[in-house]
UniProtKB/TrEMBL annotation:
InterPro entries: Surf1/Shy1, Surf1/Surf4. It is found in: Cell membrane; Membrane. Belongs to the SURF1 family. Residues 257-269 have a biased composition (Basic and acidic residues). It is a multi-pass membrane protein. This is SURF1-like protein. The chain crosses the membrane at residues 12-33, 214-237. The keyword Coiled coil does not apply. Keywords: Cell membrane, Membrane, Transmembrane, Transmembrane helix. Residues 246-269 are annotated as: Disordered. GO terms for cellular component: plasma membrane.
């Protein structure tokens, strides 16, 4: 009971609330955030590794219908025969390729006997700051392409598409947003061209296989969430022991004359 009364003092109560809130955030927000990133990175690394040693397949095998998507097959190499829609072009802006700014050039591709898919033709470098350079159109005749399957990206909050210099621009390769922008129905996954392909521009490579520090960061946040209440309990324990020792010392100390007179006459009253 004395320890509980001690904890109810304003300073220690505030500290206890802070520690409890911190531990709650560690277990429910911070650790899951890092562990989730580790799971996504590990899954993507596995997909990339498998794609490097797996022969390409027809895109219609993984995207048989217009509303199909293949999130479990990201980075898988696929082939497609069909034709571009050369009059439809969208640029993904604020991209970084090789440590330098770039535009990624996007165009719809109609697969023979299959869906219409969005194709990332590759990148071009901006001119004089952020000006769009001349971009050669894709071939108008039927062609066969080899590419890698990619997942649709999440939209960037508060960043809406816009048109500049007659070219529609977006901040992310969000397939749904681009389909609405162009008026062209698109499959749920898009294609990223490999090198030496019809309509290709600067080649976008695959990410390096690096798990990153996310697992260790997640474990650290779990450790912090466990250690914080333990340290609070230790501080409370040491403080209670110190106060008890002070009280015991004050009781065993010899009384002065004034204290004896105060005790004597105080009891008589």
């Amino acid at each position: 009971m004395r320890r509980m009364a001690f904890l109810l003092r304003p300073g220690w109560l505030a500290l206890a609330v802070v520690v409890i809130a911190f531990s709650y955030l560690c277990f429910t927000v911070l650790a899951p955030w890092q562990l989730g990133k580790n799971t996504r990175t590990s899954r993507e690394n596995k997909q990339i590794e498998q794609s490097l040693s797996t022969p390409p397949v027809q895109v219609k095998t993984l995207l048989p219908q217009q509303d199909s998507s293949a999130p479990q097959a990201q980075w898988r190499r696929v082939t497609a025969t069909g034709h571009y829609l050369p009059d439809v072009q969208v640029l993904a802006r604020l991209r970084v390729v090789g440590g330098e700014p770039a535009f990624e050039v996007l165009a719809p591709f109609v697969v023979d006997g299959g869906p219409t898919v969005l194709v990332d033709r590759g990148y071009v470098r901006p001119e004089q700051g952020s000006r769009i350079p001349p971009i050669p159109p894709p071939p108008a005749e039927p062609v066969s392409i080899t590419a890698r399957l990619r997942d649709s990206e999440q939209p960037v909050p508060e960043k809406e598409p816009f048109t500049k210099d007659g070219v529609q621009q977006v901040y992310s390769i969000d397939i749904g947003q681009i389909a609405r922008l162009t008026g062209v129905p698109l499959a749920g996954s898009y294609l990223q061209l490999v090198d030496n392909q019809p309509g290709g521009l600067g080649v976008l490579g695959v990410p390096h296989l690096d798990a990153g520090p996310f697992l260790s960061y997640g474990i650290q946040w779990i450790s912090f969430g466990i250690a914080a209440p333990i340290l609070l309990g230790y501080f409370v324990y040491t403080e209670v022991r110190a106060r008890r020792a002070e009280k015991a010392a004050s009781k065993s100390a010899p009384q002065t004359v004034e204290e004896k007179l105060s005790d004597r006459y105080g009891r008589r009253r």
